[in-house]
Amino acid sequence: MELINYVKDLNTNEELFPAIHKYAMEKRVPIIDSDALNVVKQYIAIKGAKNILEIGTAIGYSALHFASAAEGVHVTTIEKDEASHEIANQNIGASEYSENIKTILADAKEAELGDAQFDFLFIDASKGNNQLFFDKYKEHLTEGALIIVDNIFVRGLIADDNVENKNKRKLRDKVRAFNQAMKDSEYTTSFLNVGDGLLVIY
């Protein structure tokens, strides 16, 4: 067994929402990897986060898991795809966490949240816009808030210096620039080799 798979197995817990997970696998809906998910949930619990903002709802899978991470957690999640938004609402509405999750149908690049404040931000939308999402939504964070960005490895693209496809190369370069900018910033950062890569920013 490879070491990375050994650690992945240790970091993966029993699935709380098997039907939604199965649907995502069958329909190829991009959701957070199981090992990375449980690391994020642990950060939520350790932080004692109560108000989470998620950029990228998809079908509501991660929002449900976040709401389940600790008592009294509330999640606000933004999704621009109407079909995904509707499925997410169905999944959330059928769960015990329906009162803990607020879904917003909007493009996260333009969404307005008024004076809402959050103590935890999870970014998992279009990877080329990580910097934009970070800059826009950090204004809604309380002092000492935690930010986690998923897919910072872009399924291995980040380490590929021989990308021929122009669009993929542009995406790689944008994610690389964001990762480096966060490393060089005033914030405390950790780059974790779990799932497709997690960036933790404090």
From TrEMBL:
One of its GO terms (molecular function) is O-methyltransferase activity. InterPro entries: Cation-dep_OMT, SAM-dependent_MTases_sf, SAM_O-MeTrfase. CDD domains: AdoMet_MTases (cd02440). Transmembrane segments: none annotated. Keywords: Methyltransferase, S-adenosyl-L-methionine, Transferase. It comes from the Bacteria. One of its GO terms (biological process) is methylation. Pfam families: Methyltransf_3. PANTHER family: CAFFEOYL-COA O-METHYLTRANSFERASE 3-RELATED, O-METHYLTRANSFERASE-RELATED. This is O-methyltransferase YrrM.
